Known about the structure:
10 strands, alpha/beta, binds NADP nicotinamide-adenine-dinucleotide phosphate, TIM Barrel, single chain
Amino acid sequence: MNxxxxxxxEIPQLGLGTxxxxxxxxxEAVMHALxxxxxxxxxxxxxxxxxxxxxxIKDSGVPREEIFVTTKxxxxxxxxxxxxxxxxxxxxxxxxxxxxxxxxxWPMSYQLTADSYQAMEELYLDGYTRAIGVSNFNFHxxxxxxxxxxxxxxxxxxxxxxxLQNHKLHEFxxxxxxxxxxxxxxxxxxxxxxxxxxxxxxxAKKYDKSVxxxxxxxxxxxxxxxxPKSVNKKRIExxxxxxxxxxxxxxxxxxxxxxxxxKYFPEADNFN
Length: 272
Ligand SMILES: NC(=O)c1ccc[n+]([C@@H]2O[C@H](COP(=O)([O-])OP(=O)(O)OC[C@H]3O[C@@H](n4cnc5c(N)ncnc54)[C@H](OP(=O)(O)O)[C@@H]3O)[C@@H](O)[C@H]2O)c1
């Protein structure tokens, strides 16, 4: 299922996350995901797996133009010139001529972020990335970016799961033409709390699906792009099998009530 970003570029609504997946593990996960139908891979310079992801993309035999590849600007690489160098380095590591989406991984000072974003706009206009965006941006980071940006970001990738549903940020982004991407849609290192949630277990039973499948389906129904990470073949398949069913309104309401505004990753303003 594809979504059209504000510049007309299409992005598959479900992608494979690769945080904490390295070397052989990342290579094999991407190979398997592409084999079973994933067409969207999320990586970052900070994950130190761009070479492995790039090699898998090449070896998969899937035509490059059919795969949506995202990478992100590492914080030490922020700044106008450094940002340009950083994307070229990422492209070299990935073995690609362009990426589909380039994101500011975390906001830094307003000036540094504005300078980095200006470089990203130029990289976009020069064809090195088909879309640009941000990650871990809250309202005030976006509002400051709007003061200087000439191109509205296409995406904001933020932590988003049943305990942190980000309804207001989602609405704000939607009004501004920015798609929300959910990272940690399975609650990442806190996945146990998701798997043990009784409401989720009951809903999963009703649909004969797993709790992770219900958690992912919920975000898909909200129109959010999801990036579940797995290096396990069976779980990569399980996470992909969320495109073929829908949730009743009553179940959507029940999941909405599980929101705790609870972050498991740092606040952007406190992130070092
Ligand atoms: N922009 C940012 O700052 C940022 C931050 C964090 C993440 N991200 C992106 O978002 C992606 C997803 O976030 P995440 O990796 O932190 O967390 P996640 O996708 O919410 O959860 C990953 C964890 O869940 C396990 N898992 C996956 N599918 C499962 C299933 N069906 N049943 C049971 N366990 C399952 C994985 O283990 P196995 O691998 O063993 O299956 C892993 O331990 C990342 O990989 C990355 O691409 C971005």
